[in-house]
Automatic annotation (TrEMBL):
It comes from Streptomyces rubrolavendulae. Residues 344-402 form the PucR C-terminal helix-turn-helix domain. Residues 11-144 form the RsbT co-antagonist protein RsbRD N-terminal domain. It holds the Pfam family HTH_30. Gene3D superfamilies: PucR C-terminal helix-turn-helix domain. This is Uncharacterized protein.
Length: 409
């Protein structure tokens, strides 16, 4: 058998290449020069190497496997998927088996079983070497790609010219980015006794990234942690004007609905809540867009909005009410008598965020509606503001927004 393979190794290598081109589209798309030279060479060396295994009884060592590792690394560099690379080894083995089968006689059963065992051992070593070479190259490439993408993100956030950084990253700058400022809640596992919260957080983060990238056509630039962070999504096409409200960076309604759906998927997959501020920005406006998205998200959280995406137009009143100035301090002081009374503050927030629905607010707080009514009366007695009266409601809402405004706003 080893003499038959050695004598016909070059012809068999050509057959292997023909099979690769015919059965694996990824190899069919390779340049003919590469098929005739490198692919043919690797096929020949693999067949010759297997013949040597049959002759000597010794499986290939590091030096012979280095050829396989190098070839697999080249395929990774060219962008071939790993399944195509692994399939190539098995197609080659099939060609070898088909070549030897006609010479097998009934009395050769034991030899055939021995051959099959040796072939499996050979394939195991070759496959392991190929996978190792492939992933070594991919890890190196990923490190370079990640570094280049982070450099591009930093240039955009710094307001620096980003064209050169985009070229280094191999990314065509879109006309616009969808800027997302994300706040991510904890997964239940992160708070479960006996479960490593670091591992649980990393699992959550990995799922978030994968689900976000699954819905986006193009490269997502992000700086995310287990608690949230920033993501820039390329927006295809040219700008079509302002959003429905005509506000700076406002996101069109259809795009906001799409983001809502994507965040819904991300929350289901990750098992965590997500609140996001979203803004549209040109590359040279990403720096200001990121600040605005961050402010919008903080305002939405401060006024008790449920998880989901928020545009400036969605919180425009609350946003304006939380701008620094003497009015902000005065509005906030209206609720100063509630400081140190967390139950009353939580009650007021729940009542306002539930749309003044007493029963809904009571359920959210897990208290009886009568308890809710008692607390609302206490709030009125302490502040002079009655959240149940239409005449006072707007003032109470404004005071709550100002009271909860983050110090950084």
């Amino acid at each position: 058998m080893h003499r038959q393979l050695s004598a016909n190794a070059r012809d068999l290598a050509r057959r292997v290449v023909d099979e690769l081109v015919g059965q694996l589209p990824a190899y069919g798309a390779l340049p003919s020069e590469e098929l005739r030279n490198e692919t043919m060479r690797v096929a020949y060396q693999s067949i010759h190497g297997f013949a040597e295994v049959l002759r000597t009884g010794e499986l290939p060592g590091r030096e012979r496997l280095a050829v396989i590792r190098e070839a697999a690394a080249h395929r990774a560099e060219e962008g071939l998927m790993l399944d195509s690379v692994i399939s190539a080894y098995h197609l080659g083995a099939q060609v070898v088996i088909d070549t030897l089968a006609p010479s097998v006689r009934p009395q050769d059963v034991q030899d055939v079983l021995a051959l099959n065992r040796v072939l499996m051992q050979y394939l195991q070593r070759v496959t392991a070497a190929g996978v190792g070479g492939y992933f070594q190259e991919r890890q190196a490439a990923f490190g370079v790609e990640h570094f280049a993408q982070q450099a591009l993100l930093e240039a955009l956030l710094a307001g620096s010219p980003a064209r050169e950084a985009a070229d280094r990253a191999g990314i065509a700058l879109p006309a616009r980015f969808l800027v997302l400022s994300l706040a991510v809640g904890a997964h239940p596992d992160e708070r479960t006794p006996g479960v490593d919260p670091v591992i649980a957080g990393r699992r959550k983060l990995r799922r978030l990234r994968m689900e976000l990238e699954r819905h986006v056509s193009g490269v997502v630039l992000s700086a995310l942690s287990v608690d949230g962070g920033l993501a820039l999504l390329p927006v295809p096409g040219e700008p079509t004007g302002e959003g429905a409200a005509g506000l700076p960076g406002d996101v069109p309604e259809a795009m906001a609905e799409w983001v809502d759906g994507v965040l819904g998927h991300m929350m289901r997959v990750s098992g965590a809540t997500i609140t996001a501020g979203i803004v549209i920005a040109a590359p040279d406006g990403v720096r200001n867009g990121a600040r605005l998205a961050d402010d919008v998200r903080k305002v939405a959280q401060a006024v008790g909005r449920p998880p989901g995406p928020y545009r400036l137009t969605d919180v425009v009143l609350e946003y304006q009410l939380t701008r620094p100035g003497p009015a902000l301090a005065q509005l906030s002081s209206l609720l100063a008598p509630l400081a140190g009374k967390p139950d009353l503050l939580a009650t007021l927030r729940a009542y306002l965020s539930s749309g003044m629905d007493r029963r809904g607010a009571a359920e959210r707080l897990s208290v009886h509606p009568n308890t809710l009514d008692y607390r609302l009366r206490r709030i009125t007695a302490l502040t002079g503001l009655d959240a149940t009266r239409p005449a006072d409601l707007a003032r109470v809402q404004a005071a709550m927004a100002a009271y909860d405004a983050p110090d950084s706003l």
